[in-house]
Amino acid sequence: MNQLLEIKEKMIHVYQKAGIILIPVLKFLMGFLVFTMLNAYMGYDSRFTTTEITLLLALFCAFVPVSVMVLLLAILTLIHVYCVAKILAIIVALIFLVLYLMFARLSPKQGYAIMAIPMLFPINMGYLIPLLLGMTASPLSIVSACCGVFVYYFLIIVRETAQISVNNSVEDILALYRYVIDGILGNKEMFLTMVIFSLVILVTYFIRRMKYDHAFGIAITSGTMVMILGFLFGNIKIALESGVVNMLVGCILSSLLMVIIQFIRLTLDYTAVERTQFEDDDYYYYVKAVPKIRVTAQEKNVVTISSAREEKDTGRAGAFRENEPDDLQLEAFELEETVGNKKLAASIEKIQKSTYVKNGVNSMDAGGGATGRTLAGKYKSGPSSGRTGDSPERSAAGKYGGTSSSGRTGDLTERISTGKYRDASSTGRTGLATGRTTSAAGRAAASAENYTRAAGAGKRTVNAAGKTAANTENTRKTYWGTSDRRRVDEELKNLTSFTDDINDFNPIEIEKRHTSYTGRYGKK
Amino acid sequence: MLDEDKIRLMTRLSVYEEKTGKEDLKMNGYYHADYVALKVRKTVISVTIAYIIILIMVGFYYAEELLAQLVGMDYKALGMKILTVYLIILAIYIVVVVFATHMQSRAARKRVGVYHKNLRHLKRYYKRMEEDE
């Protein structure tokens, strides 16, 4: 997981540095791929299938919105069809027009879905789009998905029909027309796909908006399950052309791809560099606004908080009791040093300067949240080791064992865990995941300065940084720390305000030029 | 002397104006009812054109049958049927568009509120500057 997080961080940096070039380049590549596929699929007009024309079109698409690319694709399709069957081209044009007027204009921002489904279906990956729309868009995107499915099956019919030679007699034209319309209306697989894709979008959308842990993961899994079951049931009545095995493979691969996309999506969403220009009375400003990087790559492995009372009552750490004394304190922390991690010293120094480490605080994942829940990490019962100081009865009640990383940081718990946090390390790369999270590593570390002080049991705490990279292996040092309830409460407030500041920009490049303009924001 | 706070504020305003603000401010330029009415008018035009095209296509599909029954056809009943279907489709579209526009407008109002708040901050900033001078 650490490696994945590091890859993600690298992507953030690349995106921040090269976003202005990267996006047109990616659009160019996408355009080139799409036009090449169209030419391969129905490249009847040889004038438009040359590499030069394809490159020019792709280059044009690199600098225009996706909706323009969709329009170009539609026009190119018409040209190809016109080359081989003029009457068919008119039918195609009319159907495209109806499609736009009645459906596509309702959700113009999802134009890529209309284009992507016909392009991905031939490689058996069209199942990705409803998952993607469910995870990123609103239920209105059902319209785009259905349009995409329609275009895919319609183009198959057009391709078949284009092979039929037609005379200019009225009977032949009518027969051709009926063949196309019957092909559309009689295509049960198309309607089945539309219904299933709509269901998948709805299921994925509603689940990902729920305030549960792992809501995004559950949404993707549920969407995939609905898709697989839908097609399996549909296959009983309508034999799928692509075959059940292909469908299963496609669904699973799409689902995996969606997980990867989800992993990097939020990061890229919120780290795009903004460039803008404005002026006031004195200057003309060229500003490059870079969102604050929410990441520090320090590895802190933590931690144990333990309480004998808790152990007595529950037999396991971190468990919650209603009548805990208010003088709760975090008790014992094991700050573990990763072997060879030279950053530890710097980390401790930094921690000692502040009582709170903001690593892992902010995040944009709506699915995270889950305040008031208990730990994200796993609980393990067991005695604490390496404790020093304080009374024996406060010794460890248990451990949070190896909280695993999932890209999320831990959740805030309402209640203290008097048990032991162990190995709930935060790589600091918290950023994206939960609504309000905090790092137990930070908390543990915050207490590191007081490492010799013993602590009492208590009522509130912060969850293990849980799902960010845990590193359970290399324990070397043990520190003791204290924290009282008030302090924890203050930190909770800090968390809230810090999360609110997430959209702040940090203008780092300001090029100033003296001008005599009176700007939009200038004094009047 | 560059003032970073002011630049930050102006940057936020500018970024908003260039991105999501474009549509929001356009929407905000109308009274809510007027904006919804505009959207509805566009929808009515689109749906009407699309419906006419669909009618032509359907007519073409059943051309042979229509030609055969040209004389004895009940045009009134057919007209009523066509009109009823048209009105039903139109009603569905209008409901969807009104609902979607309402949701968009609500979200846009919040964003525009923040934008105006920032503008007020900037105004106060200039006022302070003037007072200092």
Explain what the structure shows.
- With 524 residues, chain A is mainly α.
- Chain A is 49% helix and 9% strand.
- Chain A is globular and about 85 Å long.
- The two termini of chain A are 55 Å apart.
- The relative contact order of chain A is 0.11.
- Residues 310-342, 354-484 and 498-520 of chain A have low confidence and may be disordered.
- Chain B is mostly helical and 133 residues long.
- Helices cover 89% and strands 0% of the residues of chain B.
- The relative contact order of chain B is 0.14.
- The model of chain B has no long low-confidence stretch (mean pLDDT 87).
- The chains are: A mainly alpha (524), B mainly alpha (133).
- The interface between A and B is medium-sized, with 28 and 31 residues.
Secondary-structure class of chain A: mainly alpha
Radius of gyration of chain B: 26 Å
Question: What oligomeric state is this?
Answer: heterodimer
How many DSSP helices of chain B? 5
Write down the overall geometry of chain B.
Answer: rod-shaped
- Head-to-tail CA distance between termini of chain A: 55 Å
**What integer value in Å does the Rg of chain A equal?**
29 Å
Count of alpha and pi helical runs of chain A: 15
